């Protein structure tokens, strides 16, 4: 990065990655007057439907240079972008996020050390380089505990919950995850009361703001619901937002960072993961906050003043996966009497993906309401998410 600069509306923003996060970023940024170009290997990718698209692999340096030639500023929409490509672009283009944060968050051990350096707690952990290391660490932590690949892995992939600690289980767990060819990390299991997340934004000028805490409910290791305001004590909400801001400042973040946390029964917070980009649990901001996470990201990378993060209405965000797409579309054709009766306003966002595969994120719905319990009742009554509710 050749020094912070302000990128004014009318400029073109290049996006490494063309998925739904890039799509929603482009839609928000277009309202501010920016143009967008995206790099993604999938023809007619979600972001490519609302922006110019360069169709090429993420590791294609020449394609990345084409992106740089068309863009005044470059960002990324998911953290598994090739850090080498981001580093190369930083040398010849304006990439305000740089590549250092990618390098840190792409590796669980580096990420945990960075979180600790920021003064936040993580679950006790150990680097695992052999089956003997795994056996020794399980002996220290007890069961259950979680073995994870240090790189890659999302929505529950690249993880193994160690339940018995038997020699057979440990041998199978180590063999399975080490086949990925990356380092492994064992984490002590946190018996948590709630899963929470906070999206924070920081601009090159050093301005930092956090969105309200989201209470997250997962099903099959995929985010199912985000509930805002989170049903937690006010002092825990305040501490979660403080932690997110502290991490954003410590890591010198530019743009957004999502800080996922566990809340223990005593209210203590443990940081689980970081994501240096817009995040699924921040989709509620699109209608429920004065500024959406996507507009905020654009403002931050362009060095504009950050927007107000105030929550305007209680909200529940529910993910639409492949198995939910057909029943949702059928329901959209008629009057939603349940929503009227419950006083819930559903705002539907579909991502333009061509194939509705099971467990694939196809869209989300923000349920605006005066009472989050009414929104949760709407989710239950539709029967669209019946499989999740049965888990």
Summarize the structure.
By secondary structure, the protein is an alpha+beta fold. It has 3 domains: 94 residues, Rossmann fold (3-Layer(aba) Sandwich); 65 residues, Dna Ligase, domain 1 (2-Layer Sandwich); 199 residues, ATP-grasp fold, B domain (D-amino Acid Aminotransferase, Chain A, domain 1).
Tally of domains? 3
Give the overall shape, derived from the CA principal axes.
globular
Count the strands?
Answer: 17
Task: Estimate the strand proportion.
Answer: 25-35%
Report the radius of gyration as a whole number of Å. Answer: 21 Å
By CATH reckoning, the class of the largest domain would read Alpha Beta
CATH architecture of the largest domain: 2-Layer Sandwich
Measure the end-to-end span.
47 Å
Query: Spans of 5+ residues with little confidence (pLDDT < 50)?
Result: none
Return the CATH topology of the largest domain: D-amino Acid Aminotransferase, Chain A, domain 1
- Can you identify the CATH superfamily of the largest domain? ATP-grasp fold, B domain
The helix tally amounts to 14
Biggest sheet architecture:
9 strands, antiparallel
> What's the mean pLDDT score?
93
Structural class designation: alpha+beta
Helix content: 25-40%
Question: Mind sketching the topology for me?
Answer:
Blueprint: E1 12-16, H1 20-31, E2 35-40, E3 52-55, H2 61-70, E4 73-76, H3 83-92, H4 100-105, H5 108-117, E5 125-128, H6 131-141, E6 145-149, E7 159-162, H7 167-178, E8 184-188, E9 192-202, E10 208-210, E11 214-219, E12 222-228, H8 234-250, E13 255-264, E14 269-275, H9 285-288, H10 293-301, E15 315-321, H11 322-332, H12 337-342, E16 345-350, E17 361-368, H13 372-382, H14 386-390
Parallel strand pairs: 1-2, 1-4, 2-3
Antiparallel strand pairs: 5-8, 6-7, 6-8, 9-10, 9-11, 9-13, 11-12, 12-15, 13-14, 15-17, 16-17
Helix pairs in contact: 1-10, 2-3
């Amino acid at each position: 990065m050749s020094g912070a600069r302000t990128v004014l509306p009318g400029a073109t923003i290049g996006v490494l990655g063309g998925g739904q996060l890039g799509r929603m970023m482009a839609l928000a940024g277009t309202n501010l007057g920016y143009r967008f170009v995206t790099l993604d290997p999938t023809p007619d990718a979600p972001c490519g439907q609302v922006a110019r698209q360069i169709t090429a692999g993420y590791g294609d340096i020449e394609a990345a240079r084409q992106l740089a030639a068309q863009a005044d500023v470059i960002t990324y929409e998911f953290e598994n972008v090739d850090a080498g490509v981001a580093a190369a672009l930083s040398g010849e283009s304006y990439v305000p996020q740089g590549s250092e944060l990618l390098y840190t968050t792409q590796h669980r051990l580096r990420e945990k050390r960075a979180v600790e350096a920021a003064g936040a707690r993580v679950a006790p952990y150990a680097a695992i380089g052999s089956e003997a290391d795994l056996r020794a660490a399980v002996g220290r932590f007890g069961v259950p505990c979680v073995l994870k690949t240090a790189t890659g892995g999302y929505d529950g992939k690249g993880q193994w919950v160690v339940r018995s600690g038997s020699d057979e289980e440990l041998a199978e767990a180590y063999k399975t995850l080490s086949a990925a060819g990356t380092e492994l990390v064992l984490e002590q299991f946190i018996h948590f009361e709630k899963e929470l997340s906070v999206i924070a934004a920081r601009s090159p000028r050093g301005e930092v703001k956090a969105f309200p805490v989201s209470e997250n409910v997962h099903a099959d290791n995929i985010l199912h619901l985000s509930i805002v305001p989170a049903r937690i004590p006010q002092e825990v909400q305040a501490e979660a937002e403080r932690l997110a801001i502290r991490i954003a400042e410590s890591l010198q973040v530019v743009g957004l960072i999502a800080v996922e946390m566990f809340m223990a029964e005593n209210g203590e917070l443990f940081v689980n993961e970081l994501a240096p980009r817009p995040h699924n649990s921040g989709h509620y901001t699109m209608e429920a906050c004065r500024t959406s996470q996507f507009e905020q990201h654009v403002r931050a990378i362009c060095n504009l003043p950050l927007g107000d993060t105030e929550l305007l209405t209680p909200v529940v965000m529910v993910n639409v996966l492949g198995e939910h797409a057909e029943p949702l579309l059928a329901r959209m054709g008629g009057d939603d009497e349940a929503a009227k009766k419950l006083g819930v306003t559903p705002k539907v966002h579909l991502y333009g993906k061509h194939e509705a595969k099971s467990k694939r994120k196809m869209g989300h719905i923000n349920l605006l309401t005066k009472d989050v319990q009414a929104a949760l009742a709407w989710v239950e009554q539709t029967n669209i998410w019946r499989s999740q509710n049965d888990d």
